[in-house]
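Long-time lurker. I teach an intro course on protein structure, and each term I like to show students one example going from raw sequence to a predicted 3D structure in token notation. This year I'd like something fresh instead of my usual example. Would anyone be willing to generate the tokens for the chain below so I can use it in lecture? Attribution to the forum is fine with me.
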Amino acid sequence: MRVLFYLVFAAMYSVWRLLMPIRQEQVVMINTHDTHMDGNVGEVYRVLREKYDHLKFAWIRRVSVRPLRPARLAEALRFMMVCPYILARARFVFLDNVFLPMAFMRFPGDVRVVQLWHGCGAIKKYGQDVNRGVVRWLEKKANTRYTDLVVNSRSVVSQYLSAFGVSENVLRVTGLPRTDYFFDPDRVERGREKFFERYPELRGKKLLLYSPTFRDHEVKRPRVPLDFLKLSELLGEDWRFLLRFHPYVAKHAADLIQGRVTDVSDYPDLNGLLAASDVLVTDYSSIIFEYSLLNKPMVFYPYDLESFRSQQRGFYVDYERFVPGPIARNEEQLAEAVRKALNQEEVSAFREKHFDYLDGKSTERLIQDIMNR
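-- Reply from a regular --
Happy to contribute to a lecture. Here you go:
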């Protein structure tokens, strides 16, 4: 059914391409992963709008018809009719995720299709390295439409080539736009204050952000293998716990909130959330790359490490040697690691290795490359 949907979308695009010329000032932002404006697409939009008054912007965002309601059906109909027209007239296309209708689309030679992606790097395998069947085939065809694939550093080039199945000539090692935020102290402080305005009860507390990675097999049955009540007893009264799930998982996680835990899965400003927290606890999430830019401590809780390595996605790296922080196996070890979490030297070395640019000018560098070609 979804393949039919993609075919219809692409067919509508082809019709509009025959009928309408490209608008040289038209920019389309396909924002289907980071719906908030602090992601790569939002950063590119902000700088383009500031620097180029003549550009016209249009947005394509994720839609869903479930639960079935008239408003959602109208939104889906608009998506199918209007979005192909928007794309057919675009001179520049920026996206932060795979857009599968592109598998059946052909862009004119002067159109720039820029895949920004949504992560700075990866621990676990993704894309062509894990997908199978029709999804893998569609994704590979869609990936061939990119004229530019933005890369954070040379250290992840081999991952990108493998995960996207593209040739190296489309890679642009400019740094990721979303990282510029972390080099602007005023923006970081504003993001932090905005968080505490929404959660004033957390001001003055020590905040542990727990952000587990997306697990394909737990989308509808997520679990938190941590006893936060026990962790509270071990760490003391001053600590509070922030729980952030992947968007696909968060809607099923309401029953998991307990004790001093605040669910921040729907908080729209991820950067502000990172700025407000004091320590990050995660497992295989790429969030560690952004967090390293704040030079804050991280603790790793890979509760299913062996099964994830051998039976699930697997890794691009030697996990135990790669992560910039201590690894805990239970609540006691985790509490001890959090209390002693002063691993700035490890974090600093990690940041230096995985970021080619630490100047806060990645968006500007990318835009100069794209607009001057």
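Some talking points for your students: The chain has two domains: 2-175+359-371, 181-354. The radius of gyration is 21 Å.
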